[in-house]
Amino acid sequence: MQCATHPTIDTELACSRCGKAICPRCMIQTPVGMRCRECANVRRIPTYNISSGILLRAAGAAAVAGAGMGIAWWWFDAYRLIYVFFGVLLGLAIGYGAGEAVSTATNRRSGPPLQAAAVAGVALAYILRSGLLLSVDGIDARHVFDLQSAIALVLGCFIAAGRVR
Predict the structure, then answer these.
(1) Is 81 exposed, middle or buried (0-12, 13-18, 19+ CB in 10 A)?
(2) If 0-12 CB within 10 Å is exposed, 13-18 middle and 19+ buried, where does residue 135 land?
(3) How much is the pTM?
(4) Nearest CA to 123 among 162, 88, 149, 87?
(5) What is the largest CA-CA distance in the chain?
(6) Buried b (16+ CB within 10 A) or exposed e, 48-64
(7) Residue 24 dihedral angles phi and psi, to the nearest 5°
(8) Residue 12: CA atoms inside 13 Å, Cβ hemisphere, count?
(9) Is there a contact between 115 and 161 (Cβ–Cβ < 8 Å)?
(10) pLDDT tens digits for range 41-64
């Protein structure tokens, strides 16, 4: 007999529920035997089911959180309140804040698109902070693009992605 989905493939397998012929590529192993895709009722886990509306909420939350944290980062940097250890902690806090904002806005859903949104929020914070330092304060570019800020950015991205994994 031929597979119902792939008529060029000969098979001896049949769905244990409906009896439709299935090939090894079509079969889904279930606790009660091999089934076709329709009978196996394959669905995505709800936490990973991401619609366009949820993606829009994630992007909005990342933008708002990134803008707020970018202004706060600029304020700490402009008044020279960031020292080496504190700068690393600030990067961790920014990553946590962006990840938590995306996670809360999407009802604790997870997945790579939401990780990208959280990382974009951290990147927005860094870009906004750097732009404000260069334009408003007139600070030397070496202070804006220093190693401490790069470490804070990388750690923030790592923590943000981990919050919505």
Answers:
(1) exposed
(2) exposed
(3) 0.71
(4) 149
(5) 77
(6) eebeeebbebbbebbbe
(7) -60, -30
(8) 0
(9) yes
(10) 866 666 677 889 999 999 999 999
